[in-house]
Structures are given as C-alpha cells and as structure tokens.
Write a structure and sequence with these properties.
Length: about 160
Amino acid sequence: MKIPFIILVFTISSYLMAEAPFQIGLVNPVQYQDESESIKGVKLNIVHSANSSVTGLDLGFASEVRSDFTGVQFNFLNLNDGNTKGAQIGWGIFGFSSAENMTGLQWNTINNTSGQMTGLQLGLLNMIHGGGKNFQFGLINYNKNSSIFFILPFINFNL
C-alpha cells in the first residue's frame, strides 16, 4: 500500500516541478536539457543553447529564449522572443541583445526591442520599435515613439 502511494507522490511532484534548475549547452541541440524545457535557476551557454523560458541567471556566449525571461543575461548574444524582465548585458565588441517586450536594462553594442520597452538602453546602436517609458544613451538611438524625434545621436527617450 505504501509503495503505490510513494509512486503516485513522485509522479505528481515531477509534473508540478516541470522546470529544470540547471542548463548547460555546447551547441543546440547538444545541451543538458531539451530546448522545450523551462529553466528556473542557472543557464550556461558554452557556445549556444535555447530554452522555452528562463528565470534566473543566464551566462555564456549565445542564449536563445523562445518565450519569457526573468533575471540577468550576460552573453555576447542575448536573443529573447518573448517578454523580458531584468537585464540583458553583453560582453565584447559587436554584441547583440534583443527582446520582444523589455522591462529593465539592455546594455550591449547593439540593443533591439521590437515591442514595448520600459527602462534603459545603453549601447552604440539602440532601437525601440514600440512604445513604453524608456531612455536611450548611445551613438545612434532609434525610438519610434520618441518624445523628441524618432532617431537621434547620443540620447533619446519616450516619457
């Protein structure tokens, strides 16, 4: 009687704890967790890894998140297809950060938000294609809904 109950508890708990706490990837699909998995913890990208969603710390060379991201990304390439809350920070020259909707900080050589941006962009080329309350510092700043002009050098914003 106890063994079927224990098996039932482990089965239910495995479904309830569907998110994986750790990911390490060499080159997608050569990665510890499948790309359909959600990561809640630490994601290490030796070259490139991809996951459904990530909450936590994302470090390495290239990261791809197919849905939502919450936390801090520190990669040469930060590629998020969904909502991003937190910070996307790049390293090296010619790095790139992108998000569909961004709340927080994008700090890379090239930053792109295709939807709403609420926060700050720091880089050589900053692009915001949607609305939101935002501020940009960089050599070229494109902001579709800017309070001043849609493209400006050094500084741009939408308040």
